[in-house]
Amino acid sequence: MAVFLVGLAGFGLTAMGVGWQTALQLTVDNTLRGRVMSFWGATSFGGVALGAPFWAPSRNEVTSA
Q1: Does the pLDDT of residue 19 top 60, yes or no?
Q2: What is the largest CA-CA distance in the chain?
Q3: Phi-psi region of 62 (alpha: psi -120 to 50; beta: other; left: phi over 0)
Q4: How far apart are the two ends of the chain, measured CA to CA in Å?
Q5: Tell me, what's the pLDDT at 38?
Q6: Taking the domains of the chain in order of start, what are their residue ranges?
Q7: What does the alpha-carbon distance between residue 46 and residue 50 come to, in Å, rounded to a whole number?
Q8: pLDDT band (50, 70, 90) for residue 60
Q9: By percentage, how much of the chain surpasses pLDDT 70?
Q10: Is the CB of residue 38 less than 8 Å from the CB of residue 57?
């Protein structure tokens, strides 16, 4: 059951991400699309790396109990 739910959550997150990127690409002017999508990629993937130091201390407190 858990594997099914994780797969369903993964599918949902992927579908939402594709939808957001599609909506963004259709909204932005053609001359700025490359710059906007590079900013999107940098914030999407870089945000995870920047948030890791803030997430790690709370994770250690939960698992050490």
Answers
A1: yes
A2: 53
A3: alpha
A4: 27
A5: 93
A6: 2-63
A7: 6
A8: low
A9: 85
A10: no
